[in-house]
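Sequence only, no structure available. Ideas?
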Amino acid sequence: MDNRAIGVYDSGFGGLSVWRELRRLLPDESLTYLGDGKNCPYGGRPKEDIARFAQEAVERLVAEGVKLVVVGCNTATTAAVELLRERWSQMPIVGLEPAVKPACLESKTRRIAVLATEHSLRSDMFLATASRYASDVEVLKVVGDGFVELVERGAERSAEAMEAVRRVVGPLLEQRIDKIVLGCTHYPFLRPLIEEVVAGQGIDVIDSGEAVARRVKWLLERYDIVAEVGHRADYRFLSFADEHYRQRLMCRALSMIECDK
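Reply:
I predicted one. Tokens follow.
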């Protein structure tokens, strides 16, 4: 048994969508969340910068005493997860990939769309996954322009957000797709709007949050670092931005807990 916290890292607010799934599946586990904030968004930045941000974030989480790290950011995963695993080889590190595999396997029209950041869509990791599982499926790669910024501002339910979603997702309705994969952890915050835009079109919206939580559960059991049953979970929030940003992270997470009750 190991009551140390699981560390979760993202460029900002997006990884809270993964944090929520971890909390739902693993209620006895403490979670320490680090939302960079200072350098967000990552999508258009050079790979070298993203890798440096990721290493600094994991170093901070390790200093906080976490037992496992979830890189709750697709962009940071593609840029740095192998470097992180080499540097901290004794600790399980879980990365995120867009759910391309299940989308391809389940697609009936053999056409899917992946919404992600520019960096993620041109990364070697994404291209290798698409090549492996989408040999007979056409994958439309679409940047969620402005999506991260909307979520960072807490404006995902605004008229501005709906306009942005319609601008990005609307053209896909004419492409005969039947799956939309959310390839950035910020994007699930916009999922209700995306589903509204595609309503009645036979299009499923998929994200990888639940799958990541199941992977973490498996690793905790494999490494025998599961928290005690009935352990009172502690939730902590860190940021490289200012205290106001950290407080916003915490308030957003607490609101998720209330919504789940």
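The chain has a mean pLDDT of 95.
Hope that gets you unstuck.
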